[in-house]
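INFO batch 0412 | record 1 of 1 | parsing
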Amino acid sequence: MRILNGNTFVVSDERGDIEASRTDPSGLFAWDTRFLSTWVLTVDGQRLGTLSVDDLQYFETRFFLAPGGGTVYIDAQLSVMRQRTVTEGFRERLAVLNHGEKAVELTVHMAADSDFADLFDVKNDESKKGELYHSVERDRLVYGYRRDTFHRATEITSEPRAKMDKNGLTYKIRVEPQSHWTCELRVTPILIGRNGKRTRLGGPKAAEDMGDDLDRWLESAPKLECEWGPLRRTYRRSLIDLAALRFSPLTSGGRSLPAAGLPWFMTMFGRDSIFTSLQALPFAPELAATTLRELAARQGTRFDDFRDEDPGRILHEMRYGESAAFLEQPHSPYYGNADATALFVVLLDEYERWTGDKALVRDLELEARAALRWVDEYADLLGNGYVWYQRRNEKSGLENQCWKDSWDSISYRDGSLPGFPRATCELQGYAYDARMRGARLARLIWKDPDYANKLEKQAADLKRRFNRDYWVADGEYYALALDAEGRQVDVLTSNIGHLLWSGIVPQSRARAIARHLLGPRLFSGWGVRTLALGEKRYNPIGYHVGTVWPFDCSFIAWGLRRYGFKKEAAQVAAGILDAAEYFDGRLPEAFGGYPREATKYPVQYPTACSPQAWSTGAPLLLLRTMLGLQPLEDSLVVDAALPVGIGQIELLGIPGRWGRVDAFGRGLLHTDRQGRGRPELGTGAKRRVSQRATT
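INFO prediction complete | emitting tokens
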């Protein structure tokens, strides 16, 4: 069971118990440290069995338990409820209920401990290097860890008070017949400074306050009216999960950006936070503003081989745990990606198009120019005008610095891997798009037409060379990458869909790309595979070599719409939204790339993050794509093209520079659950909606 709030989360079993091993990501985590590794409830020395679990909110769960377990149920005279709420730590309310005719005397024990594992310790099975300790201080049990200046503690309190020792908390209780006993436990992560000052990592916050915050979040988002019930459920699930993944960096003044995903990536990521902010722009534009400001504040300023940092480069990942503090890994922050820097400029322009917030564009002019300079100078490792990547931190830096960052994601047709540096195709598309968008900002807001002309000239030159060097003539698609010798890494992948989104593909070649994306080698029926069926390294459950990624598909659909392929975009949207129904509305990071006709449901990828930010954002971008929402000056263009089975969609109160407006579209009501015939469309009339207040 997982509940979370920002970068604080709890992972337990279905009893609510935590028994973490060194490689198991269960426990209470905050700021990349596990503050609780044991939390096990017993009554009279016996573990409890689960009756049911209520997933109340993303931050709150209730467990119903009873003595005994196994396959045979015995009428219990006793039951236990434990209700857990995550704030920055967590609060747990225990209730022991006596259903019998006689009073009972019981020993209730909560075993507790903390190993203070860094999240990277758990991922890499590393042991601790510092000192663990515990103490009982007046009315609280404290577990602590210190290593030089790195000092963390877990504070546990109880009302009523318990007998406390290093093994946990014990209560001797008497419960009258048809009555109950309750207590409330609070577990709080503590940072201890050099001077011994204790800082609570967040403070107590009432569940009612968190519920009110969620209500406000949902109320501020556009309202979806839809005849297809699963889409309504998926939309609500996406909004709630996006709320759960909101992360407020210490410098943000309480404003939030999207953390990447549970359990491994509950922190700020350049690429993930940008992509999710793009997906969420028509629904929660404030996320984009915070993402831009926080990434700009941490933009690279120097050359640092350990962190793969360059001037102007946008960070890849920021970590706050022990291993980052002692430079055992470079994420403090780490800059090893080749795409977030161009995508930063893309997001800045798209944000302004939606919101009209020219002030932020002016505030971030220097950072945007520095990002474009990085694309032009520091990313061009071979001096031939392309964006390349090669890690300088050979020990702990990332080998692949594109979004497909696993070790075997970049390969030739024969399955062999190219050397470094590498220049994947979508990086060139992002660079092209960033220059075109940067030119728009320079001309309209920064009032620098000469710079705008320069960027447009660079973009045109890149587009010409790219279409010469990356085009695989015998297959009519773009190579995944170029190697250091300029040879094509010639496998067929989903990356070509990102090229449509960026606009680097000439119209004359777009239809061939669309055919590949919806052809049997790439399109599974549920979505577009990361690597085409038939390629040497294809594996339907390989991380980046055959699985379907909902985020990837959402940007592919957006790209198809850009080039006028409405039916194809609707087909991709239909597959992903159908898949969401089988995941109870919560799309995972990735799922299997098996052909749809071979499975009645999408096959789960075993270690996918869930919830994961850009998968949470995928239904939002697909809604935008199906409705054809496009900002145009102070108006919103609506050009709906909905797949079979959707029925009518109304999205009410879409925020933007136009105020709030409504959009609608109608699809055909015939439903084909096998994904065939999905290109059939129903459409709403293309219209331009001017400023209009909605209620």
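INFO post-check: Residues 449-469 form the longest helix (21 residues).
INFO record closed
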